[in-house]
Amino acid sequence: MGHLDCEGVGLVAFIVPASARTWVEVPARSDFPIQNLPFGFAQVGVMEYSAVSRIGDFVINLAELCNLGLLDAEEFPTVEALLDFSPEEARTIRQALFEIFREDSEVDRRAVEKRVLIPIGDVEMELPMDPPNYLDFYSGIHHATRVGRLFRPEAPPLSPNYRHIPVAYHGRSGTVGLYDEVVRPNGVYVNGDGNVVFGPTQELDFEVELGCWFGEATGGQPIDTFEAPDYLLGLTLLNDWSARDIQRFESSPLGPLLGKSFATSVSPWIVTFDALEPFRVSGIIQEPDPLPHLHRMGSQHYAIQLEAWIQTPRMRQPQRLCRTTSEAMYWSFAQQAAHVSSNGTPIESGDLHGSGTLSGEDADSLGCLLEITERGNKPLFLNETGETRSYLEDGDAVIFRGYADNGEVRIGFGDIRWSIVGA
Question: What is 2-126's CATH number, 2.30.110.10, 2.30.30.230, 1.10.10.60, 3.30.1490.150?
Answer without folding.
Answer: 2.30.30.230
